[in-house]
Amino acid sequence: MLIFRVREPAGEIARLFPSKAHFRTEGTETVAILNNENTDYNQDSPFHRPATVEELLEQARRRIQVSDAELAEARRRRDLIGAALLNEFRGSRVYVNGSVAHGDALNPLTDIDLGIVVAEAKHTHGPGKKGCSDLQERAANVIRDALHEEFPGLRVEWRGRRRSILVRFSKAVTYGQDDFTADVIIAIDNPDDEGLFIPNYQGWSRSHPEEHTRLVREANKATDYTYARVVRLTKHYNRCNQKPLCSWNIKALALDALTRRSRLADGMLSWFDHAIASLSKGLTEDPAHVAEQPIAINDEMTRTEVVERLKKSRELLVNALTLEKAGYLVLAHETLAKFFNDEEMLPYPNLDEVRRETARKYVNDRRQRTGGKTTKPSGQATGSAAAAAVNAPVVGLHHGQSASNSRSWGE
Fold first, then answer.
1. Chain centroid, CA 279 distance in Å
2. What local confidence, expressed as pLDDT, does residue 120 receive?
3. What is the structure's pLDDT at 27?
4. Minimal CA–CA distance to 77: which of 169, 190, 211, 202?
5. Is 57 helix (H, G, I), strand (E, B) or coil?
6. What does the pLDDT look like over 129-142, one tens digit per residue?
7. Residue 21: beta bridge partners?
């Protein structure tokens, strides 16, 4: 299945792909959905070539994008919780944060984030005053009372948790998932400085989630949503590669790396360049300049290990773009698939096509090394040369595959 956003009239696409194309409209764009299984493409087709890196990134981005219906249901549940909290804490304000509020949610959608700044507690609670447990208990009870009729399996947990009240709906938003949850923060205004106090077990910590959301939304607007699209791809890369960084760290780094509209590939390279340079110096500071501590990395990795992982991943991304520039789009596709490490999000190209292009690259590389003197001026490798080229690990093999006298990828 191939999906293209096209400018050509639907009739022209249908002519190029008779009985293979289906169409839908998204806003002002026509989306062509092509069943490419066993398809003999018309040689005049604009799609009679491998996809570019940018096209692959766009297709991959859409595969991990949350549907409008899922977002609408998640926001509805968030609004139900917000209304219940405002009814309990009169004169307070609700804020939203997290991936749904920031526009970079990933599929499957499993949770949502919000908080309430409790007006009545501004002078009674906080550091050196009362803790957060009484406010959390009131909030948990009102959420349970307001939502249990629609969600009979609802569970609300707050005791022993560090920061948030956890609301378990026992009813998923994304098909096939076990549950959908909400993280609810009970906060108070800091009377002496910028930002809020949020729970830290029974005590309080400084934070500014409202400013975080403002900064992210401003970045989305300034970059025409390149920020959100690159962040979504980078978050997915992160979760498929042992999660060296938390989502907020990725977004905080992106605030400095992504400041204008760009191609997805350029945006991702900018993010990796900035992340490597920044994390080489130290942990990422709170972009709102409020939190007492920098943003933590994966506690099973050192900062040096995280930087090395990012460097290796950046190298794969650069290799994919280099191969594309040299005209090896299939090998670029294979390298990009290794980068993401998720065959559902970005499947590997056909292995026969990889072997053919590896052979072509082998011959072209040999020609360059010998000053243009080759045994086959046509550029087609045959016999032992072709066999050696196909089996040689020029750019690596597919995950889980191996060739004689070579190591599989990742071993």
1. 19
2. 96
3. 53
4. 169
5. helix
6. 999 999 999 999 99
7. 34
- Work out the burial of residue 17: count CB atoms within 10 Å of its CB; fewer than 13 is exposed, 13-18 middle, 19 or more buried: buried
Give the per-residue pLDDT at 233: 98
Task: Tell me if 334 sits within 8 A of 287, measured CB to CB.
Answer: no
Model pLDDT for residues 380-408, shown as the tens digit of each residue? 333 343 344 334 433 344 444 433 332 22
| β strands within 150-202, DSSP E | 155-157, 165-168, 181-189, 196-200
In order, the DSSP letters of 373-406 are --S-TTS---HHHHHHHHHS-SS---TT---TTS
d(CA 317, CA 268): 9
Strand partners, 183: 113, 166
pLDDT in tens, 230-249: 999 999 999 999 999 999 99
- The H-or-E segment that residue 303 falls in is helix 303-325
What Å distances lie between residue 138 and 90, 211, 284, 380, CA to CA?
13, 26, 35, 75
> What is the rounded CA–CA span in Å between residue 386 and residue 298?
45
